[in-house]
Design a protein that fits this description.
With 498 residues, the chain is of the alpha/beta class. The chain is built from 16 helices and 23 strands. Bound molecules: nicotinamide-adenine-dinucleotide.
């Protein structure tokens, strides 16, 4: 059995806690490796290495830090196939989708090449007599990130690239489901010129996360994962005096207006609802057609497309639309929710239950399901299913449709499909969701904008990547300097005013 390691201070370090987690190839349902689960002592080793290396890295001028990012972009392109293969093997997503995972992370590395510009401070010449005032953005020190299984390249890169570009050391605690790609990213950063100790990977579970929360040297925590854990880390990290941003789960609604181009809608929903087996925080999991006629046309057009989706292992190449889900437990949870939908009165328009693939009977494959006549009191509506299941909630009016999206506890992404500019504009303005698509089903902002949900999908003030990341990973210091000419003044006991 392959034993994976941590990556601490530029070395592959074996786990010493005696605890390990199984890493599966979800397509065959077999354990392919074991990953160590760190103790607080192992986390401390990484923190000590990070604290020792970070001051010198912060003192490297921003252009040189940017050059590491430039080189990293080249290396990610060079190793794209290798990364995608390792990612698909442990995650299950198709190879083109795995490459997309790497590319959306790489784009944030590209953005970080702009560090010299993004880290510029402000200067006021002559703020008072002989007085100049300037601000600088300084690194926090040792920072940490905790990431989910569903984007093992993209989300670690969204955190570590800006953290490092700002002059911090970064400790990644990736998902224990797929730890290989994060280690490869740390190795590539060092090949790109990063000193040892600046990018480290400590594998683990709750113990490792608690060690991050409790470690006094760690200044900030970035988290992406499910909402209960986001709330736990946000509360614990803030109570420990750290800066925290924590991104949680989602239930993304697509509103389909009667005037929408139904061919476009169906293509959009097929990709956004079932791509990556629905294991995306920006997946569309609820479609809300407005009007009975729109709903009937949607179900009629969508059902045959859902029935003909091709499900299989990533090794089948381009012939597959989506792969298995991540674990047997995830498969059971999804199947359980499908049963609950039937029991609670929804109509199963396409039944994905009982899907099995010859030769891959033990793989964690789940067939694609489509529910019609879903109501907002059902578990399949309230909960994040995180599987290949799309729920159709019929609404009589636009107001009822937007009301559903507004009332849901999650607010990550949403989309409206319409040809009417007024409706689209009204929707984008009023909806209480962080990322909005107009005829765009997965409105993940590009690297130079910021990514983040509202409501129970995000905790903290700043979004991921874009300019917010450079705010999250720095703190501002403002200097007031005075070089008085002529006679010396006496003491002044009032607050200085100009
Ligand atoms: P998860 O919450 O189970 O795990 C995320 C991370 O938290 C992992 O590193 C895991 O080891 C750690 N963790 C798990 N249990 C913990 C505990 N009790 N205490 C401390 N740490 C713990 O999430 P997941 O299953 O890996 O990922 C899927 C979830 O992530 C979905 O809810 C999805 O919507 C969400 N997600 C959100 C975004 C976003 O940007 N909002 C992006 C991707 C995924």
């Amino acid at each position: 059995m392959k034993e994976l390691t941590h990556y601490i201070n530029g070395e592959h370090v074996k786990g010493t806690s005696g605890r390990f987690a199984d890493v599966y190839n979800p397509a065959i349902g077999e354990v392919i490796a074991q990953t160590p689960l760190a103790s607080a002592a192992e986390m401390d080793m990484a923190v000590q290495a990070a604290a020792a290396a970070q001051p010198a890295w912060a003192a490297v001028n921003p252009q040189r830090r940017a050059r590491v990012m430039m080189k990293m972009v080249d290396l990610l392109h060079r190793d794209m196939d290798k990364l995608a293969e390792a990612l698909s093997q442990e995650h299950g997503k198709t190879l083109p989708d795995a490459k997309g995972d790497v590319i959306r992370g790489l784009e944030v590395v590209e953005y970080c090449i702009g560090a010299p510009q993004l880290l510029k401070g402000e200067y006021t010449d002559g703020a008072g007599p002989g007085i100049d005032m300037y601000s600088m953005k300084q690194a926090l020190g040792v920072t940490a990130g905790v990431t989910p299984f569903n984007f093992p390249a993209m989300i670690p890169l969204w955190m570590c690239a800006p953290a490092i570009a700002c002059g911090n050391a970064f400790i990644l605690k990736p998902s224990e489901r797929n730890p290989s790609v994060p280690i490869m990213l740390a190795e590539l950063f060092e090949e790109a010129g990063l000193p040892k100790g600046i990018m480290q990977v400590v594998n683990g579970d709750k113990d490792a996360v608690d060690a991050i929360i409790e470690h006094p040297t760690i200044q900030s925590i970035g988290f992406v994962g499910s909402t209960p854990i986001a709330e736990y880390i946000y509360a614990g990290g803030c109570a420990a005096g750290k800066r925290v941003q924590a991104f949680g789960g989602a239930k993304n609604h697509a509103i389909i207006m009667p005037d929408a181009d139904m061919d476009n809608v169906v293509n959009a929903l097929i990709g956004a609802g079932y791509g990556a087996a629905g294991e995306r925080c920006m997946a569309i999991s609820v479609a809300v057609p407005v009007g009975e006629d729109t709903a009937d046309r949607l179900i009629a057009a969508l059902s045959p497309r859902v029935e003909s989706l091709k499900i299989g292992p990533y090794t089948s190449g381009d012939d597959v639309d989506f792969g298995p889900v991540i674990t047997g437990a995830a498969k059971d949870k999804i199947n359980g929710l499908v049963e609950s939908g039937i029991a609670q009165g929804a109509t199963l328009a396409v039944d994905g239950r009982g899907f099995s693939l010859q030769g891959y009977e033990d793989g964690f494959f789940v067939g694609a399901s489509l529910f019609d006549h879903v109501t907002t009191d059902m578990d399949i509506y309230k909960q994040e299913i995180f599987g290949p299941v799309l729920s159709v909630v019929r609404a009589k009016t636009y107001e009822e449709a937007i009301g559903h999206a507004m009332d849901h506890e999650y607010g990550n992404g949403t989309a409206i499909f319409t040809r009417d500019g007024d409706t689209a504009r009204d929707f984008a303005s009023r909806i209480n969701v962080g990322m909005v698509g107009v005829n765009v089903p997965i409105p993940v902002p590009l690297a130079y904008h910021t990514f983040g949900g509202w409501k129970k999908s995000a905790f903290g003030d700043l979004n991921q990547h874009g300019p917010d990341a450079f705010k999250f990973y720095t703190r501002t210091k403002t200097v007031t300097s005075r070089w008085p000419k002529g006679t010396k003044e006496g003491a002044n006991f009032s607050i200085p005013t100009m």
